[in-house]
Amino acid sequence: MLEAVMEFVARILYESKCIRGCWLPKINFLFIIINIIISTITNINNINKSLHITIRSYYSQLSLSKSYTNLSHTTHLPPSTYPTFNQVTTDQTIKMRFSIFAITPLIASALALPAATVANSNYRPRPTPSPPKLPACGPTPQPCSCPAGTYYQVSTSVAIIPASASDLQSIIGDFLQTAWFGTSPESVTGTGFVPGAKRHLLGEIPGAGIYPITEELTVYKPYPNNAGFFQKFQMGDAPFYFNLTSGAPGILGGTWDIVDVHAIGSKSSSWLWNIYACFSVDFDFQGFHESAMNNVTDILKGQGKTSGNLIGPFSY
């Protein structure tokens, strides 16, 4: 009968057409049915075995009774010490039933193992989705991908300058005038307040030396009432290739800057300088920006155009 049950279960598993999310619960249900059937078969076997044991015990009891009768004639044992028919039968039956029911969970577990293996073998892991492809880095600030051989670097510095926005603009507003950050262009083209202007600078690249760099003004927007300005510029000759002093090649894939100045009352102004770049070597943009902000404050103080102290710079 057990073979017929297993054949029935195997046929159901074979003919099931559900995907794993549908037929796994059915397998659990089948395990319950199998356990019920096994328990039923076990109980039937227990009854049959109990009957066999009872019959055997009956004949054994008859033989044992004769033996005790003979023994009592020689040893004079009282009849109360003889084991009874019911004692023998009950003891044997309890032992047999206990043994059968003790191994029933083991049988169920053994039958469950192949089914679990089948369930695992039919599991199909979901593919890991690929991250979306990022656009190439450019003048629009957004998540982007740098060229091969470079990696993304970003820095933002902010300071509160103790001078009016118009006085600060007179120092840093002209794109072609750069003495305030420590160097002047080798040559320039265009007008410092009109997009398209270019400045050709000599810049130091860490571990490589001095190289010519071209930067181009792309956006210039003054705020009304001399309340500041907004400026964007970027490398005009990217990508730029160079050699490190070790002989290894280097790449400057591009730089994109934002300068934003806002008036804070009539005697102070905020100054934000942000840059993101694709570079093959580390560059201390934070140190460069903070040094320039401190230098500009000193220039304004020397001109007598400051009131109070510089707040910052703060970088992140």
Question: How would you characterize this protein structure?
Answer:
This protein is α+β, with helices and mostly antiparallel strands and 316 residues long. It folds into two domains: 2-121, no CATH class; 151-315, Alpha-D-Glucose-1,6-Bisphosphate, Chain A, domain 4. The protein is 42% helix and 26% strand. The chain starts with a helix and ends with a strand.
How many strands, which pairing sense, and closed or not: the largest β-sheet?
9 strands, antiparallel
> What's the CATH topology name of the largest domain?
Alpha-D-Glucose-1,6-Bisphosphate, Chain A, domain 4
Report Rg.
46 Å
User: What general form does the structure show?
Assistant: elongated
Kindly state the percentage of residues in helix: 40-55%
Number of helices: 5
Order of helices and strands: HHHEHEEEEEEEHE
Extract low-pLDDT stretches: 17-25, 61-119
Q: Ends: how far apart? A: 77 Å
Let me know the CATH homologous superfamily of the largest domain: START domain
CATH architect. name of the largest domain: 2-Layer Sandwich
**Class based on secondary structure composition and strand pairing:** alpha+beta
- Rounded mean pLDDT score: 77
Strand content: 25-35%
The top level CATH class name of the largest domain: Alpha Beta
- Could you say how many structural domains there are in total? 2
Q: Please tally the β strands and state the result.
A: 9
Keywords: Membrane, Transmembrane, Transmembrane helix
Transmembrane segments: 29-47, 98-119
